[in-house]
Design brief:
single chain, 605 residues, 6-stranded mixed β-sheet, Rossmann fold, 6-stranded antiparallel β-sheet
Amino acid sequence: ELIEKYIFKDKVSGLKKESDREDLPKLLKLTKDQIDIVYIWEISRLSRDPIYFEELILHFKQRGINLCFLRPTPLYLFDVETGSEDLITGLALSIFSKFALFEIQQKNQRQKRGKIYSVLEKENTYTYKPPYGYKKVNKKLTVNNDPISDITGFRSEKEVVTSIFEMYASGKTLRQLMNVLNENKIKTRSASFLKKDQLQVNEHTSIDKDKIKWSRRSINAILTNTVYCGYKEINFNERDKNRVITDTNKHTIETQSIISKDLFLKVQDQLKLNISVANKAYKNEFLIRGLLYCGFCGDPYVGSGSKGRNYYVCADRTKRRSNTFKNCRNSSINNEIIDNLIWNSIKGYYKVKISKETKDIDITNIERKIYDLKVSIENKKQYSEDYKKQQLRISKQIANVPDDIGYNLTKEINSIEIERKRLQTEINALHKQISIYNDQLEAIKDEEAVSFNSKGNLIVKDLNIDEDFILKQEAVKSIIQRIDFYKYDTDTRIIHIDLKTGYKLNVLYSLKSSKTALSLIDQYYSFNKETFTFKKSLTKIRGNYETGDYKVNPDSELSYIEETPLQTLQNAGLIKSDKPKSFFLNPENEKITRLPLFFELIQIN
């Protein structure tokens, strides 16, 4: 009768070493006093490596333990009747061990040839487990449009992938994407692919598949996978007996695309940038982080804070010990000042954008957006409640654990509280967004009750998001392409703004004027960063300049002059000057002055 503790099973390949096999080390610890003979199903089950096989045979010989290999025909290491070593059997075992290795090598080569033929010739899927957003249909990799939720942007795996790429390209971070997916209860690939109800993490830990959550790593794997833009590089590797790659055959195959190549490349650039410019912190609010760049060296400006004050600083300052250090001398910027300047400069443009969207969007579309926002609010509330329960559970543990563990648990509670505050901030922002959509809905349903400007755009009332950081940041990112900052002299600063509409703005301010700045349309105040001058548009004026009695000639073409930033500030009256406002005489002695309304005064605070 067999004793259970002397039955050994290994589920791994016979090519594996002793350290990689679970039961073989237990067998090798047994002595002659415990066992007389070991029955092995076939030679390859002991080892497929001829050299290691010989080592194992020697091990059992030295201990006087007989071996019996049952297949293909019973072979004994020692003669059963005499107990002496059978030399013919030893030779046969050596030959069979080499055949075992040859057999597995042949099998692997056949499998590899079959896979290459299947993938390259038949165009079947290259992987057993399809990437998120795809499924296998008749062995082909196909975009997965099966419904998974009722939330716009997340109704199918295809939509989820598209939303992940679009949100990241728009400035969302991996953590923010992770929160959005988890809060909306979007299942991960593991949760949707696993057949079992639990995932075994290790021998002590398992997790319900419905509780598997998105991580930054899983999202990054999607963002860097070329399969989503229409192609995939696959490797058919040659390995030696130790599984070390000895040769690689690379092939590029075409796949059904979910996103465009342009969007994929944009995301790859964003991934590199986000090492330094991603809006990773919730503690400090930097409105234009990720958009602001140094006008001199081209590096991004990053957020920095000390002693209760927050600044934007050129990223070059963080590279002092790097060979990429440029020794840039551009100044740091108080984030409150520049954030307010930028917001006050583009707020009007954002209102125009919302007005155009209100005119173009139909009622059903807006109602759908409101519904999605309400669903998102409920999901965030539920997530917040789960956090609260987690805090209570940890709080009960603190009283019964040592101080060092209690300290770590307290830190965990504080971390959870930060997440709860973040959720509440986002919920408040969603409520305000719903309010904006309701205003648009009201305007569309009752056009007689609203007014339109001369261009036919709907005039919306105050958006009322000045105090909401999240909505302001979304607004800024929807309007601005890039911001470049220049330090002109000790007091004068220049900010060049590229809008996504194609317009360009120049914001000019002096530290001597703490309340007001100039917003200059680049079409009329074109900034030249090489000469640090503004090319200012002029028009011909007929009449008496001294008495103010002059007329604009509407048929005249624009003329231009160049002036320094200081002259521009002086002409606008923002810094004091003994010189009068400049005007110029052309060769025909016609008086010229700057056109009105080419700049706008904006508040810094």
